[in-house]
Amino acid sequence: MTDWHEQSGLPDKRRVAASFSRAAESYDSVAALQRAVGIELLARLPAALAPQRWLDLGSGTGHFSRVLAARFPAAEGVAVDLAEGMLRHARPLGGAQRYIVGDAERLPLRDSSLDLIYSSLAVQWCADFAAVLAEAHRALRPGGVLAFTSLCVGTLQELRDSWQAVDGFVHVNHFRRFAEYQQLCAASGLRLLTLERQAHCLHFGDLRQLTDELKALGAHNLNPGRPGGLTGRARIRALVAAYEGFRQPQGLPATYQVVYGVLRKEA
To answer: How far apart are the C-alpha atoms of 39 and 218, rounded to whole Å?
Structure first.
């Protein structure tokens, strides 16, 4: 029987957790996009927000846990991540008071215990985003804020299209349509403050630089149905040739379609 993750096109969480745990040591060296996106999300927080307790959801190496701790020095911080290896890496560096292995779809936190849930480039790995929103609604206090970024359809489209020219296999991670984020946020019971999509384009000297970065991030192809074993040299040559068709003066483009959302739990 095909499991739900395979039917949905989203990767199994165990595979995601294992991949990001392996990437804990290399992640920060190649995370420029993740840093830029996270900073933009911080800029979208309501100006008057002064949380007593915040959650960094999908905290990874803890970079933004430390940023949140500096921004809200009087608040208690909690870091939750599915990847135990990331938490082991982050804990000695500080930022949060508590580090918990946990799932965004089943938060290991009490009802009405948070004033801010900050989650940057993590929830794209959750098959049930409605459950993520429901858990945020449950765990936030009245007036509390959920601020998230995610990825939607169109991310790494150049790589997807290049593979499509080579074979019919799934080589690039699936992401939701932006319209699904709109529908689910509207139905969440949270008040929508902002929801927008913004393209971020990175450039690489060659295809190997891009694929090496994806591997170092732990974000290489995690889809069910991906081809097993080594990719043949002929197919790689064909992929390189196809991707070269996208080359710009700055290099080979890799576009990320980033979703920015800020929602508030009403009193």
So the answer is: 21
Rounded Cα–Cα distance for residues 180 and 172 (Å)? 20
Say how far residue 148 (Cα) sits from the centre of its chain.
9
Distance CA 213, CA 223 (A): 18
Question: pLDDT class for 251, splitting at 50, 70, 90?
Answer: very high
Tally the residues of the chain: 267
Kindly state the tokens that stand for 87.
């938490």
Q: What is the pLDDT of residue 226?
A: 47
Can you give the pLDDT at residue 16?
54
Nearest one of 175, 188, 174 to 259, comparing CA atoms: 175
> The tokens 């500080």 sit on which residue?
94
Neighbours of 240 (CB within 10 A): 15
- Cα–Cα distance measured from residue 219 to residue 173, given in angstroms and rounded to the nearest whole number: 8
How many CB atoms sit inside 10 A of residue 182's CB?
15
Structure-token match 């790689």, residue found: 236
Q: What is the pLDDT of residue 123?
A: 95
Question: What pLDDT, on a 0 to 100 scale, did the predictor assign at position 228?
Answer: 46
pTM, two decimals, is 0.85
β 252-264/191-204 pair status: antiparallel
Domains annotated for the chain, with CATH where assigned, are 4-154+174-201+256-264 (3.40.50.150)
Query: Which of 258, 252, 113, 148 lies closest to 200, judged by CA?
Result: 258
Q: Tokens standing for 194?
A: 């902002």
